[in-house]
Amino acid sequence: MRSTQPRRIVVVSASVGAGHDGAARELVRRLRTAGFDAECHDFLDLLPRGCGRLLRGSYALELKVAPWAWGWLLRGLEKNRLSAALVGALFAVAGGRRTAKLAGAGTAAMVSTYPLASQALGRLRRRGRLTVPVATFLTDMSVHPLWVAEGIDLHLALHPVAADQAQRHGARLVEICDPLVGPAFRPARSAAERRRERARFGLPAEGPIALVTAGSWGVGEVEQTAREIAASGRAVPVTVCGHNEALRGRLAEAGHGVALGWVEDMPALLRACDVVVQNAGGLTSLEAIASGLPVVSYRCLPGHGVTNAAALDEAGLADWIREEKRLGSGLADALAQGPAPRRRAAARPDHLVTDLAGGLPAPATMLEVAS
After folding, report:
1. CA 244, CA 17: separation in Å to the nearest integer?
2. What are the Cα distances from residue 39, in Å, to 7, 10, 204, 228?
3. Phi and psi for 209 in degrees, rounded to 5?
4. pLDDT digits (tens, 9 = 90+) for 121-174
5. What is the pLDDT of residues 50-61, one digit of tens each?
């Protein structure tokens, strides 16, 4: 006979950068391995026609042209809770109808990895239009009020620092969990493996390498960072420019270390390097820590880049270098000290989602037992 236990879990992410989608993909992979029919949807596609594209484009343009304005907006929304509530309600209404339709027959739970999706799911849950439990996976170490929506059953935080912030913003149930990082992110097993990875990417065979990351869009003061790392003499900068080919061209022409475009095999590249210098505090920071590398924050993006740097620093996971004159000594300290100490293992987020969904699903078909 057929099992009637719900087997479907819906994850809602957003294609703004790569961090939200990266966490969502890893969660879906784990849930499928556990036997669920897990699927991922882009919240931007659930908004009225053209709105998602406009939101993505304006966000990218703001980070590239006027990042200070993005920081001003986030700070303003954090200080003025009424404004934040209105923004959340606007997107919750705009994407609510299509989001509700995702919870079809056999759905056991829904998960958000994006703040505005959490607002939509929380509103639907609060108003009884969603009858299945809903979780939010907080992809960042810092938690903006837009991440927390009334109606969400469970918030998953990466560290006690993030959990405390979520609770201050009104989150009811918060569980601390490990990051959603794939198994390919691991330390190099030997010096020989590291040399092979360096040769594969055309990197210097000897000496420390600082991997400069700036998200999939390559935004922020990336050129200054690469130039200043090179000038410090502490490491050779290797910059991942993502999809920003103009940035890659400028760095290559200036000769400040090595400039790479979009990298498909980030686990291998991380194993080739010695320290990561980041400006946003997103998924790459967590991947670097899983790969056994020290992480430092430098020339951070206004808004989430600065708040994530502060949270990572408070958690003892990444030193925040605030001034150029401290860059050389900060890199030397990171290289000497190595990766942040591993904290006691927390719960796996996929296990917490599985529990929220009612436990592991029964097999899709079961043999009828003869009486």
Report:
1. 12
2. 11, 5, 41, 43
3. -120, 130
4. 999 999 999 999 999 999 999 999 999 999 999 999 999 999 999 999 999 899
5. 999 999 889 888
